[in-house]
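Standup notes
- DV: blocked on the single-chain target, sequence here:
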Amino acid sequence: MRVLFLVSRDIRHPANTGGDIGLWERAQYLVAEGHEVTVMASAFPGGRARETIDGIRVVRSGGLLSLWWRTFLFYMREARGKYDVVVVEGFGGSRIPRLTPLYIREPIVTEWHQIHADLFAVQYPKVLVPLLNLLERLTALVHRNTIVMARTEEWREAFPRIGFKRENIRVVPACIDDPWLTNVDLKSVREPIIVWLGKFRRYKCPDHAIRAMKQVVREVPSARLILAGRHDDRRYEDELLEMVVELDLTQAVEFRFDITELEKRSLLDSCRALVLPSSVEGFGIVVLEANARGVPVIASSGVPQGAVRDGFNGLKYPFGDVAMLSQNVIRVLSDRDLGGRLSADSFAFASGFSWRRVCAQYEEVLAELVGSRRTAHATPS
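- DV (later): unblocked, structure below
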């Protein structure tokens, strides 16, 4: 197959996110299986306009805000009629809708990780929320005749609410690279450390984790929270720093910015649990990263059950219920038997999402779509 990926950021973009990395991993697998893959993404300072990485042809053009029209020009000038299937991002985060079904004639697979209403409500000014919700629905309407890729069964059931056709939705989950699942010590005695990982954005609600620590340190005085990730919203980061001081948690809460992948893995190897208090997540690659190191996840109801199952690979609580978040953290830190069982089950859960296994499912969806199109266009003998 000849596959074109239209993404926001490629693997070398300094601001790439879990969604960007997930699509790159799928592209890597397709190349490894002998397919021809091109990735068209935004440019960044120091990045070459054209290069080949891991066998993938990379084309970079413009910034995130101009990708919608630069994609149109790239397709018309260089890509039209040259690919069997096109994978496009649909909506969300800093991704500007490209509305590709309006001009791309090849079969399209739309990557749509979540419905964003809850995210919009937390992340943006109230006056903008109705407009953003409308834009999401309009974008879904444009993409409704494409194959839509969801990450969990819950999202497959939810997506028709914004206009997608149920019969067009496929589920292929997130995946984890095999090295994450090697050299894991499930029996090591770890310090009472809780970790939050991600970009420092309001909808991911690391402030809930900070506020929860006020009660946690009363019950477990040696407990520590480490918030690690990339800079994103400096004003919000300043608010978090002020919150730590106001709550008198400077000895219990630590910030680490722009950590490397190696540092992230080492951090997970040292902690008892990961907290994921987000208002909404499509899946949350950090769930698999934590589980792969034997770390259970304490997740809000904004995280789908397909990613975190209460009492199996983590504990769940209603989004925004900081008191219950605190109690779940205390349970994991105080109950060794519970922590040990969740750790073992977490590793078993992550093992089912290995890169090769999941990406093979993804390849099947693309091959089925390409095969159906070829059959439909075949001339009867």
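- Follow-up: The domain at 179-351 is CATH 3.40.50.2000 (Rossmann fold).
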